[in-house]
Amino acid sequence: MVNRRELTPDASPQAAYGARLRRLREERGWSQVELGVQVEYSGTHISQVETARKSPTLRFSQRVDSALGAGDSFEREWREMTQGALLEGFPEYLEHESRAAELRLFDTGLVPGLLQTPEYAQCLADSNVQRGAITHEQATDLVSVLTGRQATLARPHPPMVMVVMDESCIRWEVGGPGTMGAQLDHLLEFAARPNTVLQVAPFKIGERRGLYLPINLLTLPDMTVIAYAESQTRGHLERESTAVWPLLTSYHQLQTEALSQSATIAMIQEVRKGYS
Length: 276
Hints:
Elements: H1 13-27, H2 32-39, H3 43-50, H4 58-68, H5 73-82, H6 90-97, E1 102-107, H7 118-130, H8 136-150, E2 160-166, H9 168-171, H10 176-191, E3 196-201, E4 215-219, E5 225-230, E6 235-238, H11 241-257, H12 261-272
Parallel strand pairs: 1-2, 2-3
Antiparallel strand pairs: 1-4, 4-5, 5-6
């Protein structure tokens, strides 16, 4: 085969992914262009993934799994590769989040990931790349992970999702007027769903806020409650009830101090006017 580049699967996880992709494609007698048609990517894109010049994404992996009849093996391989871009403890959290019956989220400064638009999330990822905190490949992985997480909200029996955001989340402009305006619109759409509650904790509640750091509280199908919190460099999953229940109590207390959902919607609509 002309210009066929030899692969070295042991060179990296990306190289192993690419080598397996080529092997399964060739077993079916497909060219890169033919596989590209199946998964709605160009033949050039297929070539770049096979030779580890381009990292696969979640969407790509899921489509390859479907086209090649590979179950979810490429998606699982992708998730293993992307764990390097995630904080310690977060991959384990994701497993619980995907099957949780109820989610309680509190965030400050930034809109919680599950509620971010793709443009808002991409802007944050690009900023991290510019600061040298992550690579372009890791930024792509992080946005893909977020897209996968948000699929939880669209499953046949979605979880109940309660969100309390510090007022800074809607005041801090991210990505310019267009991106921020669309993000505020998305929050209003989120609040209109039958399985969601959205509240803003206004600046004026001061010392009555109770929670000062972002926290996620998950109720699992067996009614067990676990908590997940992050520092700048790592995440921590807490299962011990003696540590989780005080956080749950603080969350409930914060909900009573936060604006009602109707008042929250009114505040977001008022802020949205500044981005018209």
